Amino acid sequence: MTVNDAVARRITKLLQEKDMTQYRLELDSGIQHGSMQCIMNGRNKTVTLSTVIMLARGFNISLTEFLDDDLFRSEDLEVE
Question: Partners of 20 in the beta sheet?
Fold first, then answer.
């Protein structure tokens, strides 16, 4: 699994936990719809730290909370 895949899965999980729409996250995070679609559809090969920070802010959580998931601790996570 790539880092982008892990981020997309984490977004999906947090959207469900917070009963939030992707559109609301886009508005709250400042991430454009096209960019979010690239992340969620796997077309984006690299997610920047800045983007992850924006996502965390959009969810109103800390960066640490966003990354505190088994997805990011997996030995199978491909780090380039």
Answer: none
